[in-house]
Amino acid sequence: MSIVRLREVTEADVPVFFEHQLDPEANRMAAFGAADPTDRAAFLVRWARILADDAVVARTIEFDGRVVGHVARFTQFGEPEVTYWIDRAFWGLGLATAALQAYLASDPVRPLYARAAVDNVGSLRVLDKCGFVAVGEDVGFAEGRGEEVEEFILRLDA
């Protein structure tokens, strides 16, 4: 039986995350990503900051011994927020839900927020399955789409 496993992010994981980010469809769905997802230097600098920041909790997601994504908690707009990314080759297998559930079981911070583009049905479904509820909406410029995008703000309470 295959299981999803979370572990500490290592420097060796970061190039794999970069490869995941190169997928145009994944960037479109994520919407609020890097200005230039092909800029390896900027990506490496961003992850060096993430790994050096004690306030950020980042985990690598493994499935069948393969790095398939990451999940992280950071502070945005003064609130703790969770984000995740799954390699598109593994979409639709329930890995995002399993990884987020595992992460939430290990991190007691509540309330915890998340954001997703209103048309990102897959991510909204993952968040719903994990107990997040919509508490607001926002609009922001989404680099992954090159336009303003509406997003839901979701919250998970204790």
TrEMBL record:
Keywords, ordered alphabetically: Transferase
A single GO molecular function term of this UniProt record: acyltransferase activity, transferring groups other than amino-acyl groups
Location of the N-acetyltransferase domain: 4-158
Entry-linked SUPFAM superfamilies: Acyl-CoA N-acyltransferases (Nat)
A Pfam family hit: Acetyltransf_3
Protein name: RimJ/RimL family protein N-acetyltransferase
Organism (species): Saccharothrix tamanrassetensis
